[in-house]
Amino acid sequence: MRTLLKGLAGLALSAMLAVPGAMAQDAVDSGMTIYFQMGGNPGDTATLARELGARDAARVLKVNLIEQHSGWDPQKMVVQANEALAAQPDAIVVMGHAGTDGMRSFLDKAKEDGIIVIVNNNELPGTGLSYFGLDNYGAGRNLASLTISNGNLKAGDKVVVYGAFTEGAAGYDVAKGSTEVLTENGILFDSLQWSNEAVLDPALSVPVLVAYLESNPDTKAIIVPGHGGITAVLDRVLKDAGKAPGEVSTSGFDISSAAIQGVKDGYITVVLDQQPYLQGFMPVVAAVLQKKYGLAGLQLNTGGGYLTKDNVEALEALVKTGIR
């Protein structure tokens, strides 16, 4: 599957970048250096597929790819962006978790130095930069809708939404979308703010959610809008809380081996897939297109897939290849 995909990618890029004469050779052998923020830690959930996508695009376009990992720490992302800037590469691919204001100084300096900036995973609103990732608000609405339908929720049921509820914080728009859908459907919910520590170490979220379930035994569902690591431990939450598979519906983001097993075992109901392979592959392509031919402002919503018990077997095979 991976060999086939790379072959198709090469053909697609050749067609997309096809121009006469010597310029066609330049398009294939970009000669570019690109710094790329991957998000979490090397090889972890929601990071591996992004790494593989970026590496595949870099091979096709002969890009010198330099990877950066932040453990999902927004401030570290800002530091790394400025470290990349100091190296004066051709382009820098960043994540927008620190927000537009938090990245403003970096963005101004990059523009002044003529360095291309592409955004992946979390948008920087108002910048007009090329972006590849979720429509976060729309993804939040989709996640809640899928939870309602697959979890057989109805008006008056109680749900806990475990996420980010501070305006401007990474994940806020996702949580906002989810809670609005719950309100529209008459479903009661508590908003439980995750801690920075739990974001960096998802295992810390387990006792928090277990304690919530013990204090709120009428809870029908747990929704985690926007964190693959926390989604992957939802089965542990239900087991530690003494819940049977399906007794409490659970949903979250990012397909992983742990999430797949959780779906198979009946402890996880829905997993929204933001397809991070595309978030790795396409920013490299966009950087080359912008550097070589001035094609800017490209956008792609990568959040078109989801995992349930109905398609888990088919998607598991793709996850093993590192594509999904």
Briefly summarize what is shown.
The chain is an alpha/beta fold and about 325 residues long.
Q: Could you list some keywords that capture this structure?
A:
single chain; 324 residues; alpha/beta; six-stranded parallel sheet; six-stranded mixed sheet; 14 helices; elongated
Task: Give the topology, please.
Blueprint: H1 2-16, H2 21-28, E1 33-37, H3 48-61, E2 64-68, H4 74-86, E3 91-95, H5 99-113, E4 116-121, E5 131-133, H6 136-150, E6 158-163, H7 172-184, E7 188-193, H8 196-200, H9 205-215, E8 219-223, H10 228-231, H11 234-240, E9 249-253, H12 257-265, E10 270-273, H13 276-293, E11 299-301, E12 305-307, H14 312-321
Parallel strand pairs: 1-2, 1-3, 3-4, 4-5, 5-11, 6-7, 6-8, 8-9, 9-10
Antiparallel strand pairs: 10-12
Provide structural commentary.
This protein is α/β, with parallel strands linked by helices and 324 residues long. Helix 9 packs across helix 11 (234-240) and helix 12 (257-265) runs antiparallel to helix 14 (312-321). It is elongated, with a radius of gyration of 20 Å. The longest helix is centred in the C-terminal third of the chain and has 18 residues, at 276-293. Mean pLDDT is 89; it is low at 1-9 and 15-27. Helix 7 (172-184) links the parallel strand 6 (158-163) and strand 7 (188-193). It has a 6-stranded parallel β-sheet with strand order 2-1-3-4-5-11, with helices on both faces. The protein has a 6-stranded mixed β-sheet with strand order 7-6-8-9-10-12, with helices on both faces. It is built from 14 helices and 12 strands.
